[in-house]
Amino acid sequence: MRIALATAALMLAALPAQADWTQIKSQKDLRAQVLDNRYVEPQTKAWFALNRDGTLTGAARGEDLTGTWRWKRGVVCYDRKLGGEDLPSNCIAIMVNGDELVTIRDSGKGRQIRYNKQ
Question: CA 58, CA 40: separation in Å to the nearest integer?
Fold first, then answer.
């Protein structure tokens, strides 16, 4: 019983922090909150930036990440290369909470990756 109460208390304590996450739903919000910022994945140190000119820059696994992005019905779609090799195109939903950002692949239905603004 104590374990169940402790677990419930922890879950309730986490709710306000989760409530601060908001999804980027418009190009205006994307421009104001995300564009031209560098976001780093804390464990791998991979990073990316969506630039105002429609380019995508970054690095992962010691190689340069390049590409283009476009806004499409509430998500960011991109074409990219890592170290000159084409990577699969995809679209991501973006969630933000202060200096944290989460990308959710497959238009918000796939794998999530959390980044910190640098």
Answer: 9
Strand pairing of 39-40 and 63-72? unpaired
Please state the domain extents for the chain. Answer: 21-117
Q: Is 98 helix (H, G, I), strand (E, B) or coil?
A: coil
40-55 pLDDT per residue, tens: 999 999 999 999 999 9
CATH of 21-117, one of 3.40.1800, 2.40.128, 3.40.1090, 2.60.40: 2.40.128
Element containing residue 91 per DSSP (H, E): strand 85-97
Question: Strand 22-23 to strand 75-82: parallel, antiparallel, or no bridges (unpaired)?
Answer: unpaired
Single pTM value for the model = 0.82
